[in-house]
Amino acid sequence: MTTYAKLRIIAFLALALVGLVSGVGWAGAVIEVRIDDLTDAPGVTLFPTQVFTPTIVPDTTGEFLHFTLPAFQNPSGTIFYSDLFEDVVGGTLSDRLLVIYAANGLTVDVRFASDPATNRVEDGTFQVLGQFQNYSFQVRSDRSDVPAPDSLLLLGSGLAALGGVMWRRCRRA
After folding, report:
1. Helix/strand/coil (H, E, C) string of 79-147?
2. pTM score over 0.85
3. In this predicted model, what pLDDT tens digit does every residue of 72-117 receive, in sequence order?
4. How many angstroms separate the first and last alpha carbons of the chain?
5. What is the dihedral of CA 143, 145, 146, 147, to 10 degrees?
């Protein structure tokens, strides 16, 4: 192996090590921020790998999730927000994502609020809300669950009716 090839391998490994130590991965890589709101309290995970973890702010309660992420230096402050509507744009507001970055700040402030009273029905997949700096925000929103007592009552009454018909047929024969 030539000296040139060895230097290239060492440079590649050094770049990977610097990326891991700095906590941002490869320069320019997009980190997916997945907010999961299918449970009683929303949660957040980072993909493809969790080189760092989001910092959950103490005012997080119920359907409100507040966390911070490391910022990729940007000289100007910006605000990014995205809304999820129940049926169509302009319909009932279901969820709201607000991302705030102060100029030359070290963190990106992320706030997610969900309305548990809406009847938004989801298929359980993540919806892309947009990209901010090197973060791609995705949300798996509320899902209306079929109420179990009503379903069991409907199933039970159907089975009782079917049993009654079968009993009547057996009695006649």
Report:
1. EEEEEEECCCCCCCEEEEEEEEECCCCCEEEEEEEECCCCCCCCCCCCEEEEEECCEEEEEECCCCCCC
2. no
3. 777 778 888 888 766 655 566 778 889 999 888 888 999 998 876 6
4. 91
5. -140
